[in-house]
Write a structure and sequence with these properties.
Helix content is 72%, strand content 0%. The protein is mainly alpha-helical and 109 residues long. Helix 1 runs parallel beside helix 3. The longest helix has 31 residues. The chain is elongated and about 85 Å long. It starts with 20 loop residues before the first helix and ends with a helix.
Length: 109
């Protein structure tokens, strides 16, 4: 009979799953766009708020408005640029160098 009740046929031993390199590249690009883009946008917004020659409240407001555009632009560029090394170097470099500049500048008087 075709539909016998019994033990199912043994399946071949499961081979170790191989994740293609393109998957790792897309994961790195996504982390860079989400986390690195956020870090770069925050650093650039904080630098803008620190360096704009207006009142502190106005500088913070303008910097926060521009940070949304900056985050969106960085996120789109991360997926548009074909070279992952250029994307990661630029985004994480902006975040690290901007953070160093903020640390060097200190608190706004």
């Amino acid at each position: 009979m075709f539909m016998e009740r019994g033990h199912p046929a043994p399946s071949p031993s499961p081979a170790r799953r191989h994740v293609r390199p393109i998957v790792w590249a897309m994961a790195a690009r996504s982390v860079t766009a989400l986390v690195g883009g956020y870090a770069a946008a925050v650093v650039l917004a904080t630098l803008a708020a620190r360096l704009l020659p207006v009142d502190r409240v106005e500088a913070t407001g303008w910097a926060m408005i521009l940070s949304f555009l900056t985050y969106g632009a960085i996120g789109l560029w991360c997926f548009h640029e074909p070279r992952l090394a250029r994307v990661a170097g630029f985004v994480w470099g902006v975040a690290l160098l901007g953070g160093a500049a903020l640390w060097w500048l200190g608190v706004r008087p």
